[in-house]
Amino acid sequence: MQDRFETGMTVRREVLGDAHVDRAEASKSKFDEPFQTMITEGAWGTLWADDTISRRDRSLLTLALLAATGNFEEIPMHIRASRNTGASPEEIVQAFLHVAVYAGVPKANHAIKLAKQTFDELEVDL
């Protein structure tokens, strides 16, 4: 498991950036340490570390799934991560258009609003 944790931490840093991971690690407590370990090993050390599909594709899938399931809180984080995964703003909006058709216009609308705000903060011209 230590290898999976180390791989996960490496991938997590590559996708989310050192600043984000450093903040998460600094705020970790005994209470949420098991959760942080699980997502580092499982999400980052297994799923995101697998190269069957590209990080760009994983980024687009993640954003679409977050929007489709109404888990909006993590959308800005994954929009910021798209700078490291290669998913373009044009591709991201296409993913959200799929959400509109298959999961509902209000969810896509909110995801697009969050994406626009985040891209604005990142000074990305849309």
Describe this structure in words.
This protein has 126 residues and is an all-alpha fold. The chain has seven helices and no strands. α1 (2-16) packs across α2 (18-27), α4 (55-68) runs antiparallel to α5 and α4 (55-68) runs parallel beside α6. The radius of gyration is 15 Å and the shape is globular.
Largest sheet: none
Class inferred from helices and paired strands: mainly alpha
General form = globular
Which stretches are low in confidence, meaning pLDDT under 50 for 5 or more residues running? none
Oligomer: single chain
Say how many strands there are: 0
Mean pLDDT: 96
Helix proportion range:
over 70%
Question: Which series of helices and strands comes N to C?
Answer: HHHHHHH
Number of distinct helices: 7
Rg (C-alpha, Å): 15 Å
What share of the residues does DSSP label as strand, in percent? under 5%
Q: How far is the first residue's CA from the last residue's CA?
A: 42 Å
